[in-house]
Amino acid sequence: MEAYERLAASRAKNRPTGMSYIHNIFTDFLEMHGDRRFGDDKAVVGGIARLCGMPVTVIAHEKGVGTKEKISRNFGSAHPEGYRKALRLMKQAEKFKRPVVCFVDTAGAFCGISAEERGEGEAIAENLKEMITLKTPILSVFIGEGGSGGALGLAVADEVWMLENAYYSVISPEGCASILWKDSSKVKEAAECLKLTADDLFRMKVIERIIPEPENFGEVYENLQSELYHTLLLKEALKPEDMLQQRYDRFRRLGVPAQK
Amino acid sequence: MMLTKNFFKKPENPLEWYDNRTKNSIPDIPDQMCISCPKCKAILLTGDLNENARVCPKCGYHFRMNARQRVGMIADENSFSEMDAEMRSTNLIGFPNYDKKLWHARLESGENEAVICGTAQIGGFPCCLFVMEPHFMMGSMGTVVGEKITRLFEYAAEKSLPVIGFTVSGGARMQEGILSLMQMAKTSAAVKRHSDQGNLYVAILTDPTTGGVTASFAMEADIIVAEPGALIGFAGPRVIEQTMRQKLPPNFQRSEFLLEKGFLDDIVPRGRQRDYLVSLLSLHQRGS
Would you say A121 and B265 are in contact if contact means Cβ atoms under 8 Å apart? Predict the structure, then answer.
């Protein structure tokens, strides 16, 4: 499949959103709202749940289903308070020694006056800085769109996995096309150039695993449930300092230029 | 210095001109050339402007400044020792026209990449210094920028040195795809390690600081100050105008706006920056 077809699939109307993953993979989910600073961002959902019996903190971008809900969730584009809520829940997970599972699905962090005046850049920066040393395992799964810094804000993890039709990119193909060719309709070409598919990213060692999407989508949840559980057990068995060193190295080795 | 009468003459060997520029490092603009201040419209001579640290003597407007000039303005004389100067970007994902863009950027800026890093002394205090270069693809962050900044923080952590950083950037460099985005995480990780060891990091944000640089090391410093009137934000104003379908308020995303919203420690004009940094470095000497 070409990059553009994957891009279309990642944005398809009927594609399951964050909440479906939470409800199909975890049990006993209790949602926790708010960043205790400004408000509750509905584009990011978080709470405590069980994964095969194990208590975990789960955080997901949520685009919403149906027009009304999509609007209330700002189509999954989070404000700073969304990232601050996520960080608050992660810090709590660290305190109670619960692993963290994130589901990423966003076209990008919200680009608007409200987001800027409350410090979108600062909020994402803070997450990157704090997640790298969070003393509990973090796994991030890209389930649809992985738009730039807004996606990375929930993806500084020990491992990053992607569904086969998800994408992860530094800029939206539309944005890239309008900068490169001054023509936002050349999305297809831009999507190819950006190397944003799960296959591309696996080759560049930016992700650890590609999750296949069989005809029967229910298998994705079953597969993820057992894979997440077993991977978390392995991460929990590591010494905390080893886990953090591996997390550091995971990002440290990305884009090291050849030495002269 | 190139003579005015030769200004429009095509050099016989284009690389000779390039080499000269690299050596001189300050762009070869005749001192007598006129430039109009975008704020107060005063006509200024480039020579006078350069002597005044590229600040309009009439209204205080801060013109963009290349990285070498800034190092000269901030570091003690002859104290700057550059690190990783030869590191150059390559076209990692085969992005169209990127090689050509890099070639032009090197020519335009006289630098190998969009940041220069090294050790220096400021008022006698040893520190690590990075300065981003606006004339190299608008300071965009690709893998080389990410790697150089990461190495600087790792070196500073090892030697327990403070880091002083001047940012100017359009954000992550699109032409290197996802690997550019990963530099946000990589640099943040190095900043965190440096910070966790009790070391000081001061960021001075200059016009413009946006996108992936704002959402990583620019906003992660212990002390964050900005030059007056600098554009600072996550999304660019044009993108926001398109999303909001409305005109933005005049000082939106400017330093003064960020100070009011609580995201800056202070606004420090160029003329005061060196003294400001000397005071800060002095206040952070352990055991004093």
Answer: no
